[in-house]
Structures are given as C-alpha cells and as structure tokens.
Design a protein that fits this description.
Elements lengths: L1 H12 L15 E5 L3 H12 L3 E5 L11 E2 L6 E2 L4 E3 L8 H6 L4 E5 L13 E4 L8 H24 L6 H11 L7 H18 L21 E4 L4 H8 L3 E3 L4 E7 L2 E6 L4 E4 L1 E4 L3 H5 L4 E3 L4 H9 L1 E3 L4 E4 L10 E4 L8 E5 H5 L3 E4 L3 H8 L3 H15 L8 E4 L12 E3 L8 H6 L5 E3 L12 H22 L26
Parallel strand pairs: 1-2, 1-13, 2-9, 7-17, 10-14, 13-22
Antiparallel strand pairs: 3-4, 5-8, 6-8, 10-11, 11-12, 15-21, 16-19, 16-20, 17-18, 18-19
Amino acid sequence: MESSDKSNHQLRGGICYPNGARRPVRTPSVIVIGAGMAGIAAARALHEASFQVTVLESRDRIGGRVHTDYSFGFPVDLGASWLHGVSKENPLAPLISRLGLPLYRTSGDNSVLYDHDLESYALFDMDGHQVPQELVTKVGETFECILEETNKVRQEHSEDMSISSAFSIVFERRPELRLEGLAHKVLQWYVCRMEGWFASDADTISLKSWDQAELLPGGHGLMVRGYLPVINTLAKGIDIRLSHRVTNIVRRYTGVKVTVEDGTTFAADAVIVAVPLGVLKAKNIKFEPRLPEWKEAAIDELGVGIENKIILHFDKVFWPNVEFLGVVADTSYHCSYFLNLHKATGHSVLVYMPAGQLARDIEKMSDEAAVEFAFMQLKKILPEACAPIQYLVSRWGTDVNTLGSYSYDAVGMSHDLYERLRVPVDNIFFAGEATSMSYPGSIHGAFSTGQMAAEDCRMRVLERYGELNLLQPVMGEEAGLCVPLLITRL
C-alpha cells in the first residue's frame, strides 16, 4: 500500500528527476514572422495561452497588407479595406462590432460584381458619355449567362484552361452572347471587375477553381475608419520587433533558430511563418533543412496577383453620387474603375484600382506619372475634373515585403494548394490568406489561418513537453460546447 501511495503522490506532484531534482518551470516559446493580420492573430492567440511570443516584422510598422494611412488628416486604406461577409459568420465581425467600427455596405449577397451592387455604378465611355443604366443591367445579365455557360465547359473538359479560353468556347457555341459596340465595351468592363477581384488577368485564372472559395453571407462592407484599429487592438501587449527582416530559419527537433538581416538570432520551440506568398516565392527566407518538395511545389504553383490603389484627394466633389465610377473600353485592360470614398466616408476622395497586367505596367511609373495616368482616366469621363491636392500610391507588386497583393487559382493548378501551404513542417507552421482554402485573398481568411496556426502550434509544443491539458478551454473556446468524437478509420 505504501508504494502505491508514493506512486500516486509522484503522479500528483509531477515527474521526479534523478537526485530529487525537478525539471525547471519553463514557458513555451514561439517566434511569429510577419506582423500582418495572420501573424498578429497567431501572436494574440498564443499570448493569451501564456506562451512567450516574439513577432519579427521586416517593416517599420505593423499591419502588412493592412495599411491605413492618415496623411490626408483622415484614415484611408492602401491595402485591405473590405469585410467580405458582413455577418456573424465572419470571424472578424465580433471584434469589429466590439470596437464600434462602422461599415459601409457596398453589396448584398450574390452580386455579379462581387463587392458592389450594380445600382451603385455610373459607367462612361471614353468620350465622357454615361452608359444608360438599362444597358448596364442587360449586359450584366448576359455576363451572368456567360459564366453559367463556362461552368458547362468546365464539366465537359478534364483539362483545365483559363477563364478567357472558356469565354472563347462559349462565344463559339452561343454567338448571340457575343456583343458589339457599346455593349461589348460594357462586357469588357465586367471582365475587368472580375480580374480586379482576383488581382489577375482572365487569361491566367483557372476555370476549374475560380469559384471554389466560399463567400460568407451578408454582402461586403467597407471599413469606414480603416483596418488599422483592428490590428492595433490585436497587437496590444505583444513583443513586436520592427525592422527585423528574417533571412534564415533553422529547424531542429529541439526547436528553431531564426536569423534576421543584421545577423541577430532568435531561438524558440517553434515558428509561425506568416509572410505573404510573394515573399515565399522569391525565396527571400532560407529554410534549413530545405522544405519538403510538396511544400515548395505549393509555394511555386499558387498564383499571386496584383491590385493597387492610386488614391486621389480633391478639394471638392465634382463627380456623381455613386459608389463606383467606371470607364468602359474595347478591352478589359483599357477599362477603369474608381471607388468613391465620399459616399462612404464623407471625404472628397476617389481611389483608382488597377489590377493584373495594368497594375504591373503602372508600377513601372513614378508616383507622379501613375497619378497623372489615373487622373487622365478620370478626365476622359469628367472633363471638368480638377487636379488632386494630395495623393497616395501603393506598389504591392514591387514592395519587397509583399511582392504581390493576394493569391489566386492559376491555370492548371489544384485548389488544394492552399491547404498544402498551410500544413506544418515539423515545428514550422504557416499562416496567411494564401493558406486559407475556404477564404483565400481575404482579411478574414488571414485572421482565421493565424488562429489555426496558433492552435496547431500550441498543441504540438505542449504535447512535446507533456504539458498539454486537453480539459482546459483555450483560444476562446467556450466551456460546455458539444464537440463530436474524433473517430477515424485506419
């Protein structure tokens, strides 16, 4: 009986070590690379789980592709600016609601233009004549019909192709869907808006996978005061090292060693890599040993697109009271669209938003030339337009910290590449919009993957040290939640 009591006592008191020594109490540690939405979400979750967290950020600011600028005297987002899915199903909605941040809803559900309802546009031709709304609506119906026909093409072909190739097949089969004159130009504008959603051209977007991402209910809402308050709230109390560009990650069973540009090293039990896909593609971070081939393939094969913003601040409003101004043209490349922030925020600001090849071409210009280009597009539809008094220009494609705006499904590539990019490699975990199979290219997708990476990391680190308490709710889990048994087959 005595030996049994001693054994129970040892179990209650913890593991005994030789010479009566106890293992020293330790705090599990994690390094998070990247202070964008995914990295900050991961760091917040682990910080609240009592981990020692260090965030290494290459920029001199936090936020990553969330960049709210205040130089005009009011907030303007150069990066992410919409909440896609204004509903309780959106994981960011509770935080945005708690902070009292207003949203300006720009569309309901199932809008053919994704983030805006058709009625909120004013389209013009190159001569400044407004396109009749009835024609815009009619062409929109034709565009929806074309998309339905492309689905039939997808079902009939085992090999993938681009969206533009599928459109060509549709036009051959259904010549009545081929439009001419002004109607053709309006159709090209619809294609232009589709390309803006994916930040890539129609001849690079996968027919097989273009619509595989999930759209949350509630339509889309513009963050009136910008996204930075959300980032700042999540970042409170976390150890964030700015201007720390990571160049090397060494993984061992005992932990990881991370080296930054000036040679400084950091050690921890695990690391969460939450840098943009473009940075991974450029191999700016060296992994030792190399990542497995399947992981490198996922990085190489996922598409990364570009959408930029040229933000024009005027001393007065001289444009129609609509959410978007559009310029129709013979090709989607020559079409344009301007977001009217005055309708949402009350500030006299228009945002020109080029995507795909057009965005790449504009990035080759100086800021002044890019602004002049955008302003000339505006002058085509509003000849009386006055010059802007201030401007901002984003360059997500050439910014060494991003090298692209967000991910998309490239032709010939599987949609499950997002999941492959997310899967951990030993004690290296991955987060970011490009690791979200359900919500790629979105801010809530980035947020969710940050939380997932944090939970996967927490489980692995605590299991390794035998300290995992599976009965204790963590990461915001609610006690009493009914959870199904985890049953699988060998």
